[in-house]
Every structure is written in structure tokens, then in C-alpha cells.
Amino acid sequence: MKDALYGGINAAVLTALKEDLSPDLDRMAEHANWLLANGCNGLGVLGTTGEANSFSGSERKAIVEGLIQRSIPAAKMMPGTGVSSITETVELTQHARAQGCRGVLLLPPFYYKNPSDDGLFAHFDEVAKRVGGGIALYLYHFPQQSAVPLSLNLLGKLLDAHPGVFKGVKDSSGDYANMKAMIDAFAPRGFEVYSGSDEYVQRILAEGGAGCITAASNANCHWGGIVYAKRTGPEADKAQAMLTATRKAATAAPLIPNLREVIARSRNDDAWRRIRPPHLPLDKAAADKAWEAWVATGAIPLPGLSGASRAAAE
């Protein structure tokens, strides 16, 4: 897809934490800079992997502002701003717009289960009207986590009601047939479809999707960048095989603590293991197993790390 605002490889960025579990913006910015220098085109901050729903609205605003203050380009960030409250969703979205972000990612209102398409339309329609334009709205289809799927019918109604406002979707369902159906139905209208699963990056790009927004990009972005740049051929195929292998390694243990463990060991920095409850760090046996799974892929040491970090990883 041409001219996608976040076209390419986007990491669902981990949120670094201090000892008191407050956001560690210096560490997070350092990681974000590494991601942008090593294959990422953009940064999905405060999504599932970034533990967005473990942070207050004021903390979420401070994270976005703090990254920008530390020279992370606002235009590269797609903050997650969707919560169950219309009022707070609008507030967070308008805040992202004021900081210079080009788009935001909206979860559906996830507390009340089995809402109708009409109910979901009313929610997103009200959000769009109150936000007032000036920022692209991306929808987050992750029914395994939110328990609120987003149907093709709903997407079509939103695009008809708000042309150019609902700009795309992140599909983390793992169901490629659903991603392809979204591409076929809406990509001709400029709607950007992003895979939340690394194993589909090469395929979705070939079939009209915009790229990916994935958790494993925190560690495998080097190979994602090759797939996005090359698309086809032996080098792209080899890089896609690495994306698929590292995705399997990332999901072999609970995803967020798994990735924190990989980054902690790769950077020789124990602080990356800090995580907000109810999530917990991996115990030693699980951590060793997770690390061994990543090592077995050939991805470790991670390309682009400093000499000290490389030495620690080895």
C-alpha cells in the first residue's frame, strides 16, 4: 500500500519501568531510538505490549510527552488511546494530536461484553465527532484479549460515516483470512491493514496490507526491516523465516515478560525485567528456557546493540 502513514515495521514498544514501577522514560527512549535505527519505521506505544491498561491517563500523557522531549519523533508514534470511557478516549486522543502524533490506536470499549455492531458504531462515531479531526484513528482488532471483535460490517459503516478519519486497523487475531478480507474490502479506499503477527509480514505486504505492529519487533525488527525493504527474493525470504521463528520464541512463554527477559539479557540491564502487576517476571527456569528459545533462532545477539551489550548477550 502506498502512502500509508505508518507503512512498514512498527514495534509495539515495551514500557520501561523504574524500581517504583513508574515509567522510566530515559530507558524507554533509548530503546525506541534503537528500534528506529534497526528496522522499525514507527512505534506503537502504549499498546498491549506496552501495558497501556496498567497506566493512568496522566501517566499515559506523560509517557508520550516524555518520549518527545527525549527526541523521539511524534510523527513516528501511534499511541494507544482507546479505553472504555468515551470521555477519556477523546481526551487522550486530543492530547496525542496536540503533541504532533499523526495517528492513535483505539481498543473497543472492552468491559461490557457482546456489544452489538450498532453499539460499537455509536461508541466510535461519538469518539470521532468529539475528537474533531486532525488525527488518524486506527482500530484495534484483538478479540482474544478484548473479547470484543470488530466486524467487517462495523468497519464499513465507520468508513462511510467518517471518510478518511478511520484510517486503518491492527489485526492481532492471528487469523490471516480476516486480515485478507479487510484488505480486499477496504484497502482500495486507502484503509491500512497492519498484521499483529510477525509470521504474516511478507504476505500482507504482497497482498495490499500496510505492514505490521508487533510485540516481537522489540527484538526482531532488524529482519522486519529487510522484509519491508526487499519484499521478495532470497534475502527477504530468509528474513521472513527469522520473523516467523522469533515470533514462535516470543510466544513460547508469556509474551510481555518473555520480551522483557530478552531485552534485559541482550542489554545486560536487569531493569528491563520490571513489570506492573498482575504481570510478573519469568522465574529463573522459565527465563532460561525463553532465552534458549531465542538463541536457537540465531537472532541473539541482537543486531545493532552496542559492543558492551553484544558482549553481555554472547
TrEMBL record:
InterPro entries: Aldolase_TIM, DapA-like. It comes from the Bacteria. Transmembrane segments: none annotated. Keywords: Lyase. Belongs to the DapA family. This is Dihydrodipicolinate synthase family protein. It comes from Sabulicella glaciei.
